[in-house]
Here is the input.
Amino acid sequence: MKPYMNSMKQKVKVLFWHRLNKTNSKGLAPIYARITVNGERVDFSTGVYVKKSDFDTKTKKIKSSSGNINNDYFANRLNLIEVKINKMTNDLVSNNIDVTKENMKYLIAGGKASMLKNNNSAPKFIELCNKYIDKKLVHNSDLTAKYQRFTTNIQKYIKKNFGQKDVNLSLVRLGFVDDLYFYLKNNLKYGYDTTNKYVSFVKRMLDFAVLNDYLETNPIKAYKCESYGRKKDILFLSEDELLKIYNHTFDNPTMEKVKNLFLFQCFTGLAYGDMYNLTPSNIRLQNNRYWIIKERQKTGVTSNIPMLPETLEILTRIKFENAALNDRLINCITNQSYNKYLKVLSVETGISILLTSHIARKTFATLILNKSNASIESVAKMLGHANTRVTQSTYSRILNTKIESEIQDFSFINHQTNFVTLHQ
Here is the structure.
């Protein structure tokens, strides 16, 4: 077929070929379209199936004199596909957008030329991730390391699925995220929460692309990971279990230190990273009470945590001596070692669940909500949640338990209702 030339001197050629290795049980094989853009190929199925004898391999067309009455219809379908491909090329040119292999694949997948930008300075996706990390996370080493890990694994996925180190932004659409989700679950064996974090990361990168005028809109804004079954219940320690750990004494100094670090988290609700980076300047005296006032590394939202007597007691056991105002206050161990020793702590103290540093944060919030008169707004402020919706969605079951205990002996009238009869 005659190649199509556009005003930007980019050559687009369309041909059809019979994929005989996919012949079905009825002797029919699919016809594929091949678009060649400046020497690069894009193949896709036309949805047309014919017998080997009905396709002319020299002209790359369906034979019209084969006696098959469906062939004229199929031939028209192929002609229509060729017309559409030429229209896609025209659309790119009329929008002043380069006709490239990636842009043609984007249009074939259902995208619109008007959604693409003709911006020669626009980075590819991995480039964009690195640009975001360098620009936005200058002073946050933990989040930088996390996002660099995300970028590395997404680049591995791109290498596996696309055979290259990076892809144009126009290819990062719903299909891209679906395949990434499958790759993370099946190749890297990640769970729902982790894969969802990766998708959120991709969304954030595309929002950054829109903000910098590389894209018109974020094409995966409404994408949600598929959730299997009910959301997992949060794990936390009961008051008795917390007391059991508090009263346990270890002969091993490292285990005693791990115990005290864990208790400090239980009494403050601090995540491991925030505890690790706590400085003396984060401890402030207000109205005769010490407070921890610190921005969360994960979200940048400030936590305001009142220090209870037991919190101060534990702090004296784990803090560095003579720490300067901006030095680290607490003598921590690495997060990896910490979580490993917490498993030993579970066994040694007879706790039924295997402990992690995050269980301490959940324990703090749960006991505060159940045992005190603190409002959901106050707990959200202590946890450093951006809003109360996060707190309510996470601890809704806990809140219901508290409500149930508070109204247990309440009655509008002075007798008990037989609830069994209401359902008969």
